[in-house]
Every structure is written in structure tokens, then in C-alpha cells.
Amino acid sequence: MGQFEISSLQKAASAAALSPHVVGQSQAFLSLLQKLHRIAATDRSVLICGPTGAGKEVMAQLVHHHSPHSSAPFLDVNCGALPEHLVEAELFGYARGAFTGAVSTHAGYFERVGTGTLFLDEIGELPIALQPKLLRVLESKVFRPLGSTELKHFHGRVVAATHRDLEALVREGRFREDLYYRLAVFVLQLPGLDQRREDIPALIEHFSKLNPRRLRFTPEAIKLIQQQPWPGHIRQLRNLVDRLAILADDPDITADVVEGFLAPSQHTVSSVPADALADSLLALEGMDKLALAEWLLLDRAMHLSGGNKSGAARILGVSRKAVERRLLVRNTKGLDSQQCLDEAQALIQKASFRQALPLVKRGLAQLNLPAVQPANPRMLFDLYRMLGVCLRSLDGWLSAGALQAYEAAFKAGNGVVDDSELTTLLFGIWTTQLMTMELSKARGTAQEMLQRAQLNDETGVSVEAHIAMANTLFWLGDSVETLACMERGGLLPVEQIRGSGSQGFDLVGLALMFEGLAAFQIGDFSRAQLARERLAQRARDTQEHPLNCAIALQGEAWLSCLFEDMSALEPVAMELETLSQRHGLVFYRGVGQILRGACLTAQLRFEEAQEAIREGYETHMLRNGGRLFYSFQTWKMGELLLAWGKAKESEQLMAHAMDSCLKHQERAYLGELLVVQGRARWAMGQLDEAEDSLRSAMSTALALGAVPARLSAVTYLAQLLCETARPVQARDCLTKILAPLDKTQAFVGLHRALDLLKQLQK
């Protein structure tokens, strides 16, 4: 296991250790806990999915335990257990006289939970008539008890759980789609016990300790238990241990004792209905189902016979030669896996990630069959790496599956591939750190990539490492160093970059985007404008590659928004949104919606703008890209609220946003947030506080070298000084900031400040 693989799971392991009811060290379970640990620190809704008996309530309690409000109440409601006519009253409460029998006021769960966690178990059973009311609470954070005219505020967090397929219920019209997306801001998919069999010994020990009589299981007993199907998952396993603790004659539990306590359906396969068995095989994805059924039977027979071919033949009812012939065929499986790898690689180069994914999974399924060593370890590395690329592109930069795939590739490639190839996998780890705004860790990982690239003298690895570092530096607010890093890495001019690197996307488009963004921040507007024009051309040149086209469109639209060129922004933002929706690039679809929302704000279509920005960030970006873009979208939402006449809401949003940005060191647009805060306070009549915010914005922008934010801050400050009869101070502020700038550059913010200065000089 690679060093970074261990460190990526340390938080998960420590999270498990903090709760006495969380048991397990399997990779699937630790990866879940790792994701849970990150999610718990937010205040967003969480949807926990998994089979009945897998421990959904325990996971909900763990989310609460690691939340900022862990000392507040944790209340659980089983939506399927409450009578339908009582659900609304229990959730929202009621006033005295609201209905017959309501002799006093009753506080509902939403009120009683305070700032804590409200766990809605079996959310799929919530009556369809009540779903709009739950949606309203999640959207507005307010609710009205039955029979009351008073609005109450919900300050807590909702964690929902279900064993049902909510997406299928949505398609059937039995669950509201908008409610589903409000609940599924983050989704935790619990593995069943069949996916974490290596945790069974620890679970048995845990459940045994909970009983008055301690049990001692022999290795054979443990092995027998591990081999059982466990359709009831952890709950069924606990029931077995409880029965043994009470009814077994002796605390020493052997395999024979376990055999006597197993449910009849667990003794033999013959009790499983043929249709159910066939359906289970058909549900397996990614390869020839007939071949898979044969391979599974052969694996099981070889296992039961201890690897003896004659014994396996007797179990299967065939000759020994038939077993040998099938095993020989199995040993040539690498040829088919190689074909899968080659075809998937070609599709990935065309950004056809959805089509490549089944091929990658099929190749891995063949190489990872039990009791068979991979014919080509190098192939295993390549397939896991491509699996990570596909999942990252389809499920977003925060994909837990992609992270697991990169870690598996690192493990498979250790000692097999060159160190430079292992280094490229760090890019996947870096993206997760960046998207969750763990910028210090992201910078450290990028630095490790740079060091490895220097040691190996690999140009391609060096380019990727410098891209990662430049991206991180930009969000840290250091645009000068961003450009310097790109120059050191040979990324400028971009014509020097060749190919798309090992990550499957266009490094040229990415370099152009960050060159333009960083140049804009330092006040080199001509250079930023040139980058915007070249990104527009890059989008046209890469139309055959949807992901690369999306990267170029994102850069072009982002810069158009910064230049306040709304006529150019609108069609590009819509094209980005449409392209991303068509090809399943969810993260980029969210970017397009946010930028389209900025256009709608300029057109005074405030409700549409708010919905576009909110849906783009919360539904598409936050779920698939972590916190990246938080400061930018909050800045645009704050401007929207100001233009809408909602200054108080804007000011509150900015205060929260600045706390968050400072916590995560996300300083790229910190100056802009301070400007919006100052404008909001001005609109509220708080002139002294507004001046403080604008002066703070000026000093912050100066420290960060952020020229646009500084220009915006001084322009609004000068207007405020004029309004409070201080025109000389206003003129001096403008003169000082404008003096070193090239006045001929095309940027509306620059010319807005110049026009104001001319008026003051008259």
C-alpha cells in the first residue's frame, strides 16, 4: 500500500475509532468514512443509501458526531412507521386547537432539534403530499406548525436514509425530483456486508462484547460465517451472535455450533429460488454473464475442494479434463483484457468516458477473478488508472470511486511501472484536495509532484505538476506566483505544451485559462483579453473532444464574466451548459449555470438568476466538485441580492462567506466579497461600516495584488466619500490607485474609475 494511500485513509480510521459502534477496516468501509468525515463538517443535507440492516442510522449518528453542532440534539424519525395522518403534525408541530384532540401546543421535530441533526429514516415512505412541505423547509429554512400563523426557523441539518432506489421512484412519479436533489447534496452509499466480508471477524468480536457472556470463536467458525450470504447484513449477523450468546451450550463456538444456528436458507444454495439466483447473476455488470456464471462456479468448486482439480470436478459433475480445460482458457484471459484496455483508451482520448467505463470494468473483472493471478500486472495498473479517469470525469472531481481507483492503481503499479507514472496518480489525489479546498494539502501534494518530476526528468509529468501548483496558487490568491510557476514549468507560451497528458484532458486549454485569470487579477487586462480570445478559438478546435471543449468554454465564459462582457458571456455560458448536459459533464454544467445566472442578473431577471446560480452550485458543482468555485459563486449571488434590493441578505451572505474563505485560505476573490459587503452596508444606511469594509477591501486586494478588486473598492469608496462631502479624499484615493496602471487597457472597471476621477477633477 502506497504512503499516500495510507494517509488518505487515516482520517477515516480515526473517525471509526471515535465511535464505539463503528467497526471495520475494509477499504470500502474506510473510504466511506473518509467521505463522511469531509461531509460532516458542512451543514448540507445528506442522503444515506444502502440495504436494510447495513447500519444507516449508525452512519447518521456519526455524521452528527463529527458535525460542528455535535452537542445539539440528534432526533430520528422513521417516516415509514408514523401513520400518514400524523406525519405532518409530528414533523412540523401544531398549535392548540389545530385539530380535535390538540389541547395544547406541540413542538415538532423541526423545532425540537434546534441546531442539531434531524434523521429522517426511510424517506422513500414519506407521503407525496408532504414532500413539497419538506422541500420548502430545506429551501427556505422556515416552516409553519399546523393551525399556526407563526413562521418558525429551522436551524438544524437533515440527514435522510433509504433502502429504496429514489431515482426510480422519481421516474415513477412517486418521489419529487426537486426534493431528491435537495436531500442528495451529498450521498453516502453504504456497502452491504457482502462487500466488506473482511470486517466480519471484527464485527463478531464487537457484538460478542455487548453480551453478558463473552464468546470465543474458532477460526473455522469465523471462516464459515464469512462464507454465508447475509441478506440481512449487519443486523442479521448481530442477531446470530446474540442467539449464540444466549442459547449456545458452551462459550467456545466451533463451526459445527454455528452450523446449527444458521437460518435454513443459509445452509444450502438449493433453497434459493432459481429465478432469484438467475436475476442475481444477470445483475452483475460489465461482462459476458454466461462466462461469469461458469467462472464463479469454477472458483467456488476449486475453493471448496482446496484447489484439488479432481475434487472440483466431482462437485461440478464434470470430468477432471473439463476443469483443466476451463482453467487453461481462464489463463488466457489477458488477451481479452488487453482488448478492453485498448478500446477504452481510444474512447478516453475522445472523452467518451461513459462508453469507456464498461470496457474498463470488464477488463478489471477478468483480471481480478478470485484464485487467479493477473497475467499482466502492468495491465492492472493501466485499467485502474483509466477507471479513475472515467469516474472522475463522469462523477466529478470528488468521486470517492475515482479516488479508490487511483489508490488501487498506485498499489498495483508499485514496483511494476516507472516512478514517473506513479507520480501522475498523485494528480487524482491533488484534485480531491483542491476541490474540498484543503489548499495547504493540495499545495503539498503539488510540491511532491514537482519534486518527483525533477528527479525523473519527465517533461509530461512536470507539465502536470506545474498545472496543479499553478491552479492551487491561484485559489490561494497568489496570481503573480501563479504566472511565475507556469513560466518555470514551460507552460508559457502554451504552444510549447504537447498533448493532453496522462489525465485525459487538454493541458493547453487549462494553461490558457489560468494564464488569463491570473493576468486579469494582476491588472494585465490586455494579456487576459488575448487569453480569452485564444480560449474561444480553442473551444472551436476541440469540438470533437467534449471535455476539452468544456474546459475552453469554461475559461472563455469565466473571463467574459470578469470583463463584464455580458453580450459575449450569455451564448458561451449556454453552450457550456448544453454541451456538459449532453455528455454528462456535471461539474461543468454547474459552471455554465452560475455564469448564465450572472447574465440573468444583468438583465434584472432576479428569480431566474438566483435559481440558476443556486442549482448550478448546490445541485451540480457542490455534489460533484466539492467547494471549488465557492467564493466566485457567492460573490455573484451577493451582487444578485444587492441588485434585487435584498441588501441585508447580501451582507449576511458575505459575512458567512468570508469566514469560510479565511478558514480554507481561499483568497482568490476575497477582495470582491469585501466590496459586496461594503456596498450592502451602504445600501442599509450603515455608512461608517460600509467605509470600513471598502477600505478593508482595498488593503486586502493590495496585499493579494488583486487589481480588479482594488479598482472596484476604490470606485465605490470614492462615491461614498463624495456622498459624505469628502470629494478631495475621493479624488486622492482614485489618483493613487490609477497612477501606475495602463489607462489604455480595455476593462470596464478601469474606465469606470477613470470616468469618476475626471468628474472629480472638474
Major sheet summary line:
5 strands, parallel
CATH topology of the domain at 3-191: Rossmann fold
Query: Share of helix among residues?
Result: 55-70%
Strand tally is 9
Structural class: mainly alpha
SSE blueprint and pairings:
Blueprint: H1 3-17, H2 27-40, E1 46-49, H3 56-65, E2 74-78, H4 84-92, H5 109-112, E3 117-121, H6 131-140, E4 142-143, E5 152-153, E6 157-162, H7 166-171, H8 177-183, E7 186-189, H9 200-209, E8 216-217, H10 219-226, H11 233-247, E9 252-253, H12 255-261, H13 264-267, H14 274-283, H15 289-304, H16 309-316, H17 320-330, H18 333-349, H19 353-367, H20 377-395, H21 400-413, H22 419-435, H23 439-456, H24 459-475, H25 479-488, H26 507-521, H27 525-541, H28 546-562, H29 566-583, H30 586-602, H31 606-625, H32 630-643, H33 647-664, H34 670-683, H35 687-704, H36 707-723, H37 727-738, H38 748-761
Parallel strand pairs: 1-6, 1-7, 2-3, 3-6, 8-9
Antiparallel strand pairs: 4-5
Helix pairs in contact: 1-2, 2-3, 6-8, 9-11, 10-12, 15-16, 16-17, 18-19, 18-20, 19-20, 20-21, 21-22, 22-23, 22-24, 23-24, 24-25, 24-26, 25-26, 26-27, 26-28, 27-28, 28-29, 28-30, 29-30, 30-31, 30-32, 31-32, 32-33, 32-34, 33-34, 34-35, 34-36, 35-36, 36-37, 36-38, 37-38
Give a verbal description of the structure:
This protein is mainly alpha-helical and 762 residues long. Among the domains are: 3-191, P-loop containing nucleotide triphosphate hydrolases (Rossmann fold), CATH 3.40.50.300; 194-271, Helicase, Ruva Protein, domain 3, CATH 1.10.8.60; 274-330, Homeodomain-like (Arc Repressor Mutant, subunit A); 629-761, Tetratricopeptide repeat domain (Serine Threonine Protein Phosphatase 5, Tetratricopeptide repeat). Helices cover 66% and strands 4% of the residues. The protein is built from 38 helices and 9 strands. A 5-stranded parallel beta sheet has the order 2-3-6-1-7. Strands 4-5 form a two-stranded antiparallel ribbon.
